[in-house]
Automatic annotation (TrEMBL):
Keywords: DNA-binding, Transcription, Transcription regulation. This is Cyclic nucleotide-binding protein. The gene is nssR. It comes from Flavobacterium glycines. Signal peptide: none annotated. The keyword Electron transport does not apply. It comes from the Bacteria. InterPro entries: cNMP-bd_dom, cNMP-bd_dom_sf, Env_Response_Regulators, HTH_CRP, RmlC-like_jellyroll, WH_DNA-bd_sf. PANTHER family: CRP FAMILY TRANSCRIPTIONAL REGULATORY PROTEIN, LISTERIOLYSIN REGULATORY PROTEIN. GO terms for cellular component: cytosol. Pfam families: cNMP_binding (PF00027), HTH_Crp_2 (PF13545). Residues 130-198 form the HTH crp-type domain. GO terms for molecular function: DNA binding; DNA-binding transcription factor activity. Residues 15-116 form the Cyclic nucleotide-binding domain.
Length: 198
């Protein structure tokens, strides 16, 4: 999203996180901007029964956790490495200085935040009113469009586990598995070697 060289010019550092490492915790005050060089990061919450709800999954060249940075609010979710990940991190003050000096990057950040807000609005409507198959397919189509999933001979490889799909749609894993099988029978999805393609 923002060139690494530019971030480093403003004092950013590169940091490695292992699988399951926590980057920041829900309720903590934001102090840095985070951008993924490699790996996968999820933002999540847990309900009173301990069930995980995934707010979002972020990949290479994406940033995460920046909304609270702009409005000086605490993080509404945790950020956790799904796999070993390398991030570039810059302090809040230096990040704001970078944005003030680079209008085009500020616009890109606004577009990125707007896209995520749009997605949250769409998914909120889908989760509240649609059947499981529709929810799963809508999430998959959004993910193809926004997360640059790889197109192979069989179609777009859906780089989300059944558990992640469940956590992103508010469904149970068993329901997601049934929905995917049903969507395969209808020809909307393909399952090859346990991998899902659209």
């Amino acid at each position: 999203m923002i060139a690494i060289s530019l971030l480093e010019k403003y004092g950013a550092i590169i940091k490695t996180f292992k699988n399951s490492d926590t980057i920041f915790e829900e309720g903590k005050q934001p102090t840095h901007y985070y951008q993924i060089i490699s790996g996968e990061i999820k933002m999540n919450n847990y309900n009173d029964e301990g069930k995980e709800f995934i707010q979002g999954i972020f990949y290479e060249n994406q940033c995460f956790g920046e909304p609270p940075l702009f409005i000086d609010q605490v993080y509404p979710a945790n950020a956790v490495a799904v796999i070993d990940s390398e991030l570039i991190i810059i302090t809040k003050n230096k990040f704001f200085e970078l944005l003030e000096n680079n209008a085009e990057i500020s616009l890109n950040i606004i577009k990125n935040l707007s896209q995520r807000l749009y997605y949250k609005s769409v998914m909120a409507a889908e989760i509240s009113s649609q059947d499981p198959e529709h929810r799963v397919l809508r999430l998959i189509d959004y993910s193809i469009a926004q997360l640059n999933f790889k197109k192979e001979a069989a179609g777009f490889l859906i780089n989300l586990t059944r558990q992640q799909i469940a956590d992103l749609t508010g469904l149970r894993v068993e329901t997601v598995i049934r929905a995917i099988k049903s969507l395969e029978k209808k020809g909307d999805l393909k399952i090859i070697n346990r991998k899902v393609y659209r």
